[in-house]
Each structure stands twice: as structure tokens, then as C-alpha cells.
Amino acid sequence: MRPIDNQCVETISKYLGEIVTGSVITKIFAKYNWVDHDTSYGEKLISTKWKRIYTSLIEEMNKAKSPKPFFTMIEEIMDPLNFINEQENWDQNRNNINFSLSFYGYELTDGGKIKSVKAAKTFSEAVSRSKNLLEKLENHNIHHDVLKYCSPELLDENYFHAIFEASKGVFHKIRSLTLSSKDGNTLVNEAFVIKNPALIIQENRLNTSDEISEYNGLKSLLNAICYLYRNPQAHSPKLYNPSSESDAIAAFIMMSLAHKQLDRCICVRQLL
After folding, report:
1. Which terminus of the chain has fewer Cβ atoms in its 10 Å neighbourhood, N or C?
2. pTM exceeds 0.70
3. How far apart are CA 259 and CA 220, in angstroms?
4. Where does 43-143 have alpha helices with state H?
């Protein structure tokens, strides 16, 4: 793993200096009893915020013979509680920091903590890694009801749990439409019956072969989501790799399509 060097500290200090006020920097220095070069030598020196951060961090890292003070400073300033209602600001700053850290084998998680990762070796790899999974999903126009059920898990990159929670959201929507208490394949098979449907697709009267195919296609899609993602437990063999980002994206695309189709459905018979 490449050691954290002065260039990395300087680059990220410049990002951090744009985020916080001088008074916040002072409080952090006092909290950890770090030297503050603007006040520690009997005369107040008004330097730029990033230089205050950089100069003190270099000294503290040298004393500790460790990058820990550097990581602590990042975690203090990038505490998610400091970015409530500022999602765009959080994402931008986290991406900037992670782009630099990725070359050294570290990453700032969405929980605001530094963790070790495989170091990026190329510029394009660092750019790709600096984008979190939610951003990648936005490029696929994923339905908001998928993201609503799995955002916390996605941000921790816990793909298995995220997929499981998102799949539950699909069946919750069917229950909400039909007022049914059932779940999974039983719910789907009782809601989508050609001769006595509980749910129908708007403008689909089930009169033609194309309309019936569309209807059965949605039913099959929902059953597939149940078989693949709703029923398996953590210890069971799975038909997807829960640690694979591409498999996760494929699962969310499938569930997004299901939500978009369910948005077109209306209830004509409640399943009480």
C-alpha cells in the first residue's frame, strides 16, 4: 500500500478547507490537542484554512508516525451529520476526497469513516471508484421506489441486504394495491389471474394475444424477482454474486422495471 505523502495531505486539505469555518478547525485542533500554527507560537498568524489544516496535520502525523491524524481530520469534517439536507454537497466532497485517497488504498465510506481498499492503479479506475453505486444507478434511471428501500444499505455497499430490501418493496407495492396480507409468489399468482384478475394494466383489456403476453410478462417478472431476490436467505446458494456491483445493478434494473409496470396497474378486485 502506498504511504500517505505530503501531496495527498495537501490536496485533501484544500478540499477540507473549503468545507469548514476557521472556528470549526480551531475546535477540532483543541479536541485532539493538536498544534495550531496560527495560535501556538505567541502570535496569531492568519493563514488560509487549508494551510492551517495541512501544516498541523503534517506535524501531528510525524509525531504519531502514522496517518491516523489525517484520517481523523477527514472523518471529523466529513461527518454525515454535518451534511444534513446537503446531499449534493456531501457527494461532491466525498468523491473529490476518494479520488485522491484511492491511489493510496483508502476510501471514505458514506458513513463518514476511512477504510482500506485495493489501491487504484489508473486515472480511470480512480474516477470510477470515486462514484458511489447510487450515482451509477441514476444513470440507469432507476425507479425512486427501488432506491427508497435500499439507500442505507447501498451506501455501505452491502449488496445482498440492499437487494433483499428492494425486493421487499416490490411486493409491498402489490399488497398496497390489493390490500392483501400475502407475500411472494403466492401474492403474485393470486393478483395476476387472467380470468379473474385483482390487478390489471391500464388500457390492457386482456382481449388480444399481445395484451395477454404483456400481462403474463409482468407476472413472470414479479415471480422471477421473488425467486431470485426475495426468497433466498444469506446462507442459501444464490444465482447472483452478492459482492458483485454489476450483479447488484442488474437486480435493481429488474426491480425498477417491475415498479414502472406496477405504476400502470389498477386494482379491480381486492385480495382480503
Report:
1. C
2. no
3. 14
4. 49-64, 68-77, 87-102, 123-130, 133-138
